[in-house]
Amino acid sequence: MLIKRGIVLGIPGKKCGTIIFTAEELSNCRDIATMQFCANKLDKKDFFGKSDPFLVFYRSNEDGTFTICHKTEVIKNNLNPVWQPFTIPVRALCNGDYDRTVKVDVYDWDRDGSHDFIGEFTTSYRELSRGQSQFNVYEVLNPKKKGKKKKYVNSGTVRRVECVCVLQYLLGGGGCFFPGNPSQPTSLHYMSPYQMNAYAMALKAVGEIIQDYDSDKLFPAYGFGAKLPPDGKISHAFPLNSNTENPNCVGIEGVLEAYFQSLRTVQLYGPTNFAPVINQVARCAAEITDGSQYFVLLMITDGVISDMAQTKEAVVNAAALPMSIIIVGVGPAEFDAMEELDGDEVRVSSRGRLAERDIVQFVPFRDYIDRSGNQVLSMARLAKDVLAEIPDQLLSFMKSRGIEPQPPLPPGTLHFNNIRRC
Description:
The chain is of the alpha+beta class. It has two domains: 32-170, C2 domain (Immunoglobulin-like), CATH 2.60.40.150; 197-400, Rossmann fold. Helices cover 23% and strands 27% of the residues. The protein has helices at residues 90-94, 125-128, 143-148, 198-210, 251-265, 275-286, 308-318, 336-341, 375-386, 390-400, and strands at residues 2-4, 7-9, 32-40, 53-60, 66-71, 86-89, 101-108, 116-124, 137-139, 157-171, 174-178, 218-220, 222-223, 226-228, 233-235, 238-239, 248-250, 267-268, 295-301, 323-329, 349-350, 353-354, 360-364. α6 runs parallel beside α7 (308-318). The longest helix has 15 residues, at 251-265. The chain is elongated, with a radius of gyration of 26 Å. The N and C termini lie far apart (72 Å). GO terms for molecular function: calcium-dependent phospholipid binding; metal ion binding.
């Protein structure tokens, strides 16, 4: 059978029907959204169990029809499911029109494919991107049940747990992710009154473990990629506490406080250069190579590196020093550059030089988000994996320099390695 210009050409003289093509011009919107949903008290549809619910998202078209744009996974035997976060281009969801209707159907999964309809609700991307409020809770309505039962209220509710948007711009042929305004829910740095953002969670998860190996609990903390007051100068290594003479923060809580305060005072801005921060810590590590101190640099990023060549060179140089680098990727971006820096498979190289040892551990934070939304579990899993390679990296440096372990301390003596401030 041949299709030509929307007409089905089959047996001569026989009507084979018609195929209608509809098209819509794509907007130039390049936003990418990561969303998560949960439900409460959905209708029980299975005779021997509860329900196996899943969500189906539809984009509304200009002609009033709807097109499926996303399906969630099925949660078995649960009337209060929490679905996994998912990432979708905003263009696929609403073609860049934030006020266009988005329809969501809730189904009970059946093995034979005859899924039972639980109910539906409508929203828009603008509503979904708002902060936590009553606008993020939707009644799931079944029109047939509503018409038959006078006392029918709903078939449950669905709540939007999270919606993070990354604004993607194309600059000179390369990709750049801009964090946006931290006061807006669409920013990866969004300061929600209800929960920590991924940057804060990563800081807290890793920092609370690392801080136990430092006696004075003072940590230098830096930001990279921002315009600083008062003149708007761009910096790629600025102290979060705004004190260039003493960038130290007291404990991880102090680092978090400085981070949130910094978000209120600086303007996040590209490009995103890693090399200046790595080189700054490397300079400190280069001054103490006798094995008495070891440096751990934690970097939290949305995945974009604007100075990849310089960063690789900085990593190769740092590999000869008592130093490790932990990189936590947040947001929905592709992290190919981060994987390249993590030299588990292929050792990082620069200008023909291979890194002396692997000192970079990279993990994407999205892989550690607990399905139930439990931040404590998410943080525990993250900390376990990002710190897993540090002991071997430390030992590899000591052995390469022939540094023997210190004699054991007398019983009852406590000792912590001090980390020199950078």
